[in-house]
Write a structure and sequence with these properties.
This protein has 756 residues and is of the alpha+beta class. Helix content is 36%, strand content 23%. A hairpin with a 5-residue loop joins strand 8 and strand 9.
Length: 756
């Protein structure tokens, strides 16, 4: 069993930011740090004081983390980026909001005295004496201190203060991992209320010393404990008065902390087997578990439940069966064909998640080149006459204003070219579409055709497929390519308009060019010939997609399974030091790397650098290494040069590392390996929350006409699956209560006391 924590983060937008550039604007982006470790960098939004990001992340991290901080930065091309302000949320703050922190938060100033990091190793003792007791403080070492000097390190020393007396350690040059092993003693009077303050400083020859953090010890509690030794987290100096909040603008955030105690796999087997049995049996009436879960799940958490259920059944090899059951449930309550899969039902949400999990690489192959072309061309495109901007055209000295008709015609030509290229790429991609996606679309197509068999509804099965493929997958990716990892930056205003018009055209094709879709925006008429041609192409594509035989799918799936899937691939910049000086005397080499579960390879392939490249690589490497039993608990961040380590100055080359290994903070992505136990735990947690509603449903079914129905043959569902579910939930509750990880955490050391 294990304790696991995760953060769901959505960085929405900022407002009223201060201008940092001479143009009266800023180029803001956000950096997210967990305990001072940068993990996320958003895209830069250029020339605005009210940026919109809309970026979402899922982060897995250790349960012992202390805080998550959001820094708003202003990007500068020629100088160091400016810090605008930050929002810091502690673990306690997030824990106090079980449904998540959501809303606007004022940015606060970033004070260097508050930007501390690292830990210090202390040994504290109360030593009896002939006349009076003495307080002995041994300053042993520190790790992960903030680098304050231009050489990327610090010159740390420690100042120990008690009862008006101050003593200092020696200075360790150029190190963020210093070792002192120095001891100080102070006279201690019984009943003394003074606190012991241990401060870490960076020594500077010319300017003032920089504050690195402090630890404040409650002497009364130490007197009771007599002795205490361990690593203490350095705390900021918060004694300074703050300026009025709000002058740096605000940041809108949605952050949710989830802590889960994950039990051994055997504990979840009854729950998983029960759900799998219900999926295998298919549509069995109003008492069916999946149907009841959908009925009792609120709209606000339906996407989360859908994604968790999908991953659980993917891990059991039942994703297609699960989606097929949802298709049947949706079709059984749909009377009008034009309303099919238009709501935010469990079927719609599950299919969205399924396409992102199983089809993201396919989407990149089909849509990526078209999106790249739109971004690179940066053409002005507009079809709405009320929004056309007429500009000068022609060569030098022969400028003339471009007419509105010319703008509209050129725009239509550009969009027809992009739409035609996209539809052609889609038509050629039947074999490239993942086998499990093809099988799911074939099942959907067949179920819809069985439900609406009349000739007047001949397009309904095609529309059912395109409602997911085009309206809920391709079109959203066109509108927001950054959120689907198709581009590293958000589009500018001109490119955004082109993408919006292209997405509208794809939606019209996906709707099979119905009169209702044409009537919404009549100014889209110039694209109608391409849209009509696209409808024919799309229907031909879907026909081929759903006609592939099972044997072909099995052969393709077998071929794909022989290749180790890439965990991460892309460019990486390798730093090669030429001398002992700072980074200015170094060069960088750019290589294209590919990491699979079996090998790490590289080649000299050019590619663009992603803004989150480094953290995505670190995250991927940590996921691959997470089950490595030989993973080091500590390491040396420096090199052994001459007769000592450059980081901590130890002279034993084989000694343990001076810095702890950070191996737990990882970014969750759609291609992450499935975590079967965690998905089962999340489903259990959700079912526990809706247990009261399920019991009410059970009471209604027990007293209704369905109560007399029971299994009529071998292999059919038991008469009362809900009662079986309640028994399983009760057993899991008992397992959690009896597990060591499920008990309340032990009381932390109480000799550490913060001064505010």
């Amino acid at each position: 069993m294990a304790k696991r924590s995760s953060l769901s983060i959505r960085i929405v937008e900022g407002k009223n930011l201060p201008a940092k550039d001479i143009t009266g604007s800023s180029d803001p982006y956000c950096i997210v740090k967990v305990d001072n470790e940068p993990i996320i960098r958003t895209a830069t939004v250029w020339k605005t004081l009210c940026p919109f990001w809309g970026e979402e992340y899922e982060v897995h991290l250790p349960p012992t983390f202390h805080s998550v901080a959001f820094y708003v930065m202003d990007e500068d091309a020629l100088s160091r980026d400016d810090v605008i302000g930050k929002v810091c949320l502690t673990r306690d703050t997030l824990a106090a909001h079980p449904k998540g922190f959501s809303g606007w938060a004022h940015l606060t100033e970033v004070d260097p005295d508050e930007e501390v990091q690292g830990e210090i190793h202390l040994r504290l003792e109360v030593v009896p004496g002939t006349r009076a007791c003495r307080l002995r403080c041994s300053v042993l070492e520190a790790r992960d201190l903030a680098p304050k000097d231009r050489n990327g390190a610090s010159d740390p020393f420690v100042r120990v203060r008690y009862n008006g007396r101050t003593q200092e350690t020696s200075i360790v040059k150029k190190s963020c991992y210093p070792r002192w092993n120095e001891t100080f003693e102070f006279e201690l009077e019984e009943g003394a209320a003074e606190a012991l303050c241990v401060e870490a400083w960076d020594w500077d020859l010319v300017s003032r010393n920089d504050f690195l953090g402090k630890v404040v010890v409650n002497v009364q509690r130490l007197w009771a404990a007599q002795r205490e030794e361990g690593w203490f987290r350095l705390q900021p100096d918060q004694s300074k008065s703050r300026r009025e909040e709000g002058h740096l603008g605000s940041l809108q955030l949605e952050v949710r902390l989830r802590d889960e105690t994950v039990l051994p796999s055997s504990c979840y087997q009854p729950l998983v087997q029960l759900l799998c049995r219900e999926v295998k049996l298919g549509h069995q009436g109003p008492g069916q578990l999946i149907s009841l879960i959908e009925e009792t799940t609120s709209t606000e958490c339906r996407q989360e439940v859908a994604t968790t259920l999908l991953k659980l059944f993917l891990g059991q090899g039942l994703a297609k069966d699960f989606l097929d059951l949802l298709f049947q449930l949706e079709l059984s309550r749909t009377c009008e064909a034009n309303t099919l899969f238009r709501s935010n039902s469990l079927a719609s949400k599950s299919m969205e998640s399924f396409l992102k999990v199983a089809g993201m690489r396919y989407l990149h192959g089909v849509l990526g080149p078209i999106i790249d072309r739109v971004f690179e061309e940066k053409k002005y495109v507009e079809l709405d006459p009320s929004k056309v901007e007429v500009k000068d055209v022609g060569c030098s000295g022969l400028h003339r204003p471009q007419t509105e008709a010319e703008v509209l015609e050129q725009s239509a030509q550009t969009l027809r070219a992009h739409l035609g290229a996209l539809l052609s790429a889609l038509s050629r991609s039947v074999r490239a579409c993942p086998a499990v996606v093809r099988a799911t679309f074939r099942q959907l197509f067949r179920r819809v055709r069985e439900r609406f068999p009349s000739a007047q509804d001949e397009n309904v099965p095609f529309i059912a497929v395109t409602s997911f493929l085009c309206l809920r997958f391709v079109s959203p990716a066109i509108l927001a390519p950054k959120l689907f990892h198709l581009r590293e930056r958000h589009a500018d205003a001109r490119t955004s308009r082109t993408l919006l018009l292209l997405a509208k055209a794809v939606q019209n094709v996906g709707n099979m060019d119905t009169p209702a879709s044409r009537a919404k925006e009549t100014w889209m008429e110039p694209l109608q010939p391409t849209v009509r041609q696209g409808v024919a192409q799309l229907k031909d594509f879907i026909t081929k997609l759903v006609d592939i035989q099972e044997k072909d799918e099995l052969d393709l799936q077998r071929a794909l399974s022989l290749q180790a899937p890439p965990v991460k691939e892309g460019p990486l910049f390798i730093h090669r030091t030429k001398g002992k000086g700072p980074l200015t005397s170094s060069s960088f080499k750019k290589l294209h790397f590919s990491l699979t579960t079996e090998a790490l390879s590289f080649a000299k392939t050019p590619s663009s650098k992603c803004v989150n490249e480094l953290n995505q690589w670190l995250s991927a490497l940590r996921k691959v290494c997470i089950n490595n039993t030989g993973l080091l608990g500590s390491y040396h961040p420096g090199v052994f040069r001459g007769d000592k380590w450059s980081c901590c100055h130890q002279r034993d080359k084989t000694d343990l590392g001076c810095n702890k290994t950070r191996s737990w903070v990882t970014l969750q992505e759609w291609n992450d390996p499935l975590d079967h136990d965690l998905e089962a735990q999340l489903i259990y947690r959700h079912l526990l929350g809706v247990e009261a509603a399920l019991r009410e449903k059970h009471r209604q079914l027990s007293t209704g006409p369905e109560a007399s129905r029971g299994p009529t043959g071998p292999g059919e569902a038991p008469g009362d699956p809900l009662a079986e579910l309640f028994q399983v939930l009760g057993d899991l509750q008992e397992a959690h209560r009896s597990s060591p990880a499920g008990s309340p955490p032990s009381e932390p050391s109480r000799i550490l006391e913060l001064q505010t």
